[in-house]
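Q: Here's a chain of 128 amino acids. Please give me its 3D structure as tokens.
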Amino acid sequence: MAVDKNMAVLIVDDYKTMLRIIRNLLRQIGFNNVDEASDGATALQKLRRDTFGLVISDWNMEPMTGLQLLKEVRADEKLRGTPFIMVTAESKTENVIAAKKAGVNNYIVKPFNAATLKTKMTAVLGEF
């Protein structure tokens, strides 16, 4: 089944510049329906209120980290199946393992470009 490029994508990062970068990368690969949150708690509120086809979240945020957000999403019956990609500047093995155990669909290490984002999203969502 083809991926709907009009689906809503939620990007979560406490660094405004990174939100802008990810939004631009998504636009480059054809995704324009993008919402954003600057922390995990706000993201969770948006996820519970609206429907998103994908979450792209930073790992390091306060007060709720990306890992905590992921665990909340996976624990919520309504949100459990939402595809989730974690973004981090650290490629520590223990972080990757913790994210996998928590149910992350894919993992991107910063910095990354549109081609990398497309590859990671294709692995999670299918071809587009």
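Q: Can you summarize the key feature?
A: Helices lie at 16-28, 40-49, 66-75, 93-102, 114-125.
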